[in-house]
């Protein structure tokens, strides 16, 4: 009976996908035309000739949002309730993309290194493999789906209006967030955390509370993902235009006055043709950068806002010498402990979270959506054979390092496809790095350094977290579930060193020294942030300092990642800032 149910579920999912594909194919240049009639290909856009005509006709916008991601979609949808908005997204639509839509295919988009993938891989100078989104919906299309709110401390620290925050979170949650069907693996995680004192158990909650909890997810009960792109259904279709495959090259400025003034953007369509879009003449019209923590500082630099020396080195005309653009880049380092299993394990992404008082978060994943044979043949961004190592600094690109890397990849234990991982993440890393341009091609990744574990406090917290994770694997809850004997700490660490894949050279003592283990096996959970900090690049309203009519709404303004997982707060931020701008501009007439 169980196998019949599984087959019926699969048939239902494929039926849903067929309907979405049919809708997309019938739409021509429009996407899901009945629900999203305002989504069009960039090539359909009719450009204005110059900003001098920006106050005339249909080509002027009250707001131009650059980046249709986690923050950009709710921001554009909200602003469109009262104003004319243009949303520009460099990627395509997620609606009929099976790799984006289904939990079972979670890893495939991350492994797809093609130019049309929803995920654009990059490798930090630290040697850690990473990804950034390239699709309408942004990171909500390629992440593990976990949804939680930020702590009250974070909300107060950034100076947000708590009442408006508490209106903005539910707006997101009612549309795309679900309560997960908790997997048995995740129950074992909960029980082992409670035994180790990560208490109390707070049940199912979105709130950020010390102890152990089950959180929300953007995957529904059928395993289908719901992304930020779906929030566009709340937009005013008469006032919103969304262009996909619209790659913004730079922000355009009028520099004839005392302060540079943003007037529009230059972008290329899917055919490589160039277009310009302009703001209306109103001083309250704005360009909103929501390109993410990698894309937004890169966009500022390409637009001539950044350190003068770096701009001149890249032959970019200096609009504003802003020396802190690209500084303070941070990524929450993650290390994982491999948990073998003698029994098949249902696939689950993050559902259980342990919020400790030592600055460490514990999460977990289990199983795998595809067969162990297929994934062993192709590791996408982790494939040393297909040329990605050319982007790695020469010191790490030795023939020995490459061969060792390939061997580690091929030696990933087969049991990994039946077991899972305990994930340990540093809550608020002190170590930071920087972002620099490599060239002036917006489609190329900039150089990013995070300096994982540069500060000793970060390293100590990793050690504390790894100790918790290894004790969890040794607990009766996991030995009973996996039907594996209790393993020694050395054996657990040895298996985990093999299963963690990055480009950092390994050391012979990385299972004897937990500090070395942390350094050698660090990976990412994609929670990078910073590069446009408040007080240095933007003010507390996120307006770019030194220029007019340019604002940033995304995680690049954060100096810490909110909550255990940031997507919920970044989604909320888009809605929150949209509401706040409407209220500030219209007062009671905003009606929100």
UniProtKB/TrEMBL annotation:
Disulfide bonds join 462-518. Keywords: Disulfide bond, FAD, Flavoprotein, Signal. Residues 292-306 form the Glucose-methanol-choline oxidoreductase N-terminal domain. GO terms for molecular function: flavin adenine dinucleotide binding; oxidoreductase activity, acting on CH-OH group of donors. Its cofactor is FAD. InterPro entries: FAD/NAD-bd_sf, GMC_Oxidoreductase-Related, GMC_OxRdtase, GMC_OxRdtase_N, GMC_OxRtase_C. FAD binds at residues 89-90, 135, 248, 526-527, 555, 566-567. Pfam families: GMC_oxred_C, GMC_oxred_N. Residues 1-27 form the signal peptide. Belongs to the GMC oxidoreductase family. This is Glucose-methanol-choline oxidoreductase N-terminal domain-containing protein.
